[in-house]
Design goal:
26% strand, alpha/beta, 8 strands
Length: 162
């Protein structure tokens, strides 16, 4: 059964005329857990991190190809953000309306204050298809990279490509 949280994503994608393909699976909380369900899903799979600066007044959604590791020190320098660290579950819920394990760009539909800066790994541009959780960790959806950009534009958050 599709939850209200997940349905909100599909309603937004339908409104934007974005085609998607849904893949249901067991709940996953890490990339390592998810890999077993990705073998038949085409496209790039993303790692999504929700971070905050040291003062806690800036929040970042980092979207990168799943095989990469995030160097938070280098990232903080590139963003001129000060020291970065993982944001708490409370902040994740407050800003993106998400639970741990379901972090994805689709959470931006819940960021009405546009408080989260999106940081996209520019190498994702080379993929025709990209995959994300639809705000729950029991499914993965595939969309085109072009449609990801369309979605981000619709959300209106500041977006940085690194």
């Amino acid at each position: 059964m599709i939850s209200e949280t997940e349905q909100k994503v599909y309603d937004t994608l339908d409104q934007l005329n974005i085609d998607y393909r849904r893949h249901e699976h067991q709940p996953v909380y890490t990339v390592e857990e998810a890999k077993q369900y990705w073998k038949d899903i085409e496209g790039a799979h993303a790692k999504n991190l929700f971070l905050r600066n040291n003062k806690g007044n800036r929040h970042y959604l980092i979207v990168m190809e799943q095989s990469k590791s995030a160097d938070l020190q280098k990232l903080s320098m590139k963003l001129a953000a000060g020291k970065l660290s993982f944001a708490s579950e409370r902040r994740l819920k407050e800003h993106l309306g998400l639970e741990t394990g379901a972090v994805s760009p689709f959470g931006l539909i819940n960021d009405h204050k546009k408080a989260v800066t999106v940081v996209i790994d520019s190498e994702l541009k080379q993929f025709d298809k990209v995959n994300f959780h639809p705000n729950v960790n029991t499914a993965t959806i595939t969309i085109s990279y072009h449609d990801l950009e369309k979605f981000l534009q619709h959300c209106g958050n500041e977006t940085v490509f690194i």
